[in-house]
Amino acid sequence: MTLHSIVIQKLLSTNAHLGRRVASHHFKQFTYGHRNNMAIIDSDRTLICLRNAAQFIAEMAHRNARFMFVNTNSLWDEIVEQMTKKIGCYSPAMNILWRTGGFLTNSHSPKKFRSRRKKIVFGPTQPPDCLVVFDSDRKSSAILEAHRLQIPIVSLVDSDMPIEYFNKITYPIPCNNSSAKFVYLFCNLITKTFLLQQKQRGHVSAEIETSEQVGAIEEAKKDELLVVPYEFLHISTDVEKIEEMLDKLVVIKFNGASGTSMGVSGPKSTMEILNGLTSLDLIVNQIESLNSKYHCSVPLVLVNTNSTHEDTLKVLEKYSSSDINIQSIKQTQHSQLKSQGGQSGEDELYPSDHGAVLLSLLKNGTLDVLLSKGKEYVLLVDSDNVAAKIDPKILDHLVENKIDYCMEVTPTSYDSDLIGSRLQKFELAAIAQNSIKDLMERFKLVDTGSLWVNVRAIKKLLDTDELRIEDISVSKETESDQVLLQETAVGSAIRFFKNAIGVSVPNSQFLSMKKTSDLLLLKSNLYTYDEGVVRNIARTNPANPVIELGPEFEKVSDLLSRFKSMPDIIDLDSLNVTGDVWFGAGITLKGKVAIHAKPGMQLEIPDGVVLENEDIKDPSDL
Prior knowledge:
Layout lengths: L2 H11 L17 E5 L2 E4 L1 H20 L4 E4 L6 H11 L4 H6 L14 E3 L5 E3 L7 E4 L6 H9 L4 E5 L5 H4 L4 E4 L5 H28 L3 H11 L2 E6 L9 H8 L2 E7 L16 E3 L2 E2 H16 L5 E5 L1 H10 L10 E5 L23 H10 L2 H7 L4 E5 L10 H10 L3 E7 L4 H4 L4 E4 L3 E2 L4 H4 L4 E10 H9 L5 H4 L2 E3 L6 E3 L2 H5 L6 E5 L11 H8 L3 E3 L3 E3 L10 E4 L6 H7 L9 E7 L1 E4 L4 E9 L5 E4 L4 E3 L2 E2 L6
Helix pairs in contact: 2-7, 3-7
């Protein structure tokens, strides 16, 4: 019998699964079914919510936060009293005071209150940091006041909980809250959580002299990112461990980029790269390979916009026979960004920032569903990065070191100090979000668009209202070149996570497809494609060739018509083409090549020619 089965049997023995009546509509997400007009609560969902609440209570207890435990059921008085005494939170006066209207909202003004039991007590001078409610159907006033003060609420909720109070609870725990056994189990869990955190806090306080020093250290870390070299990562040799680890992963691909700028209708992810393969095929092939190799089940979630959703649904029909669980959802609109002209275009309504995607997933309930299915980590993949890799090495490192947030970055240059085999800290201002050429020289690292996030960590931040859309999608206009830049995901979201790192991945895992020059790289012999993107080992230069094509090559149809076949660019350093230029088949380009056709002139590069460090301006130069 597995540990999970034992825990579920323990929950069933407390009768926590027996609801009072058929569940309200908002509660049906926690029910398994119904019998004899009674809701049967799903014990798996109860266990997940119980774990989330315990983790939140542990975090608050570690910070030495103020707790208020609310209970009016006389049957639980002794259980709750014993718990509060053991954890050092026993306060009989506070247990009575919640009944008095305005007890929390007027707590800034200490007064004498007279309770229903005719006892005179004093109100607290500070409100609690967390409210724990045991029988929420009787505690409407405490819940309303705590919600008004934005105090996180942990509460047991039954199937007949009204939606107006249910929506105000931060961490609801679906259960039969009239079960004494379950209340005892819950109190025992809180007691053990508190005692463990108090013990750990005691060790920490012995090592740190003052809380001011701790604050200074934390403040310094907010502006820096610890970057781990990819060579430091190792994967476990235990196949069963890898299988269990991958079963907790879900891949989410932002699929909002449209191919209209390259003259192609539909999303970029459905654009053919080579031999009928698209970037969506590449990510699906990777997942299929992992699922087959490790006998796991990694799902794929595509987050679309209005302009890409319908086309994506049609493309997904080709995967109907695949064993992969592929879901396609529409991203919530956030009109946060403005274009340079001051107008908000359709693309600005769907910022590709990872935080906006996560908020969209939270609002449509996707994160809750992932948690209910045992998923713990999310890999967010940018729509433009064709070479994004689902790397078990990175996931293994995150799980082993309990990392909540990991950004994949790659150096903008090939300085040995940046790629060296040592841990380094980089200022967030040194990490660029986009691979725009004229911006690269200003930064040391570039964000590849692949982000690993712990689902519970992001859920906790969003539930406690610490992470908001206005904190993430921030745009700024630089005075020097009037370029509209959105802050990097590292700089905008990393400050909310305690355990956050960056991993410096090889440059081959970052191939952005924004222009036809990028497509030329992808269609060339520089890369091969099967389960992912594989760089040709014949190329010794770690950097990709720099390719600049004129407006004559702006559309995909122009590129394919002007190149009879893609040239050999294994030894190419740079290529600059402008004007009416046409390429034959079997061409080899080496070193630095520039081809400029004068206005009104048509230049044809013949079949089989080898151009090495050439500057072609006239047919006679060939």
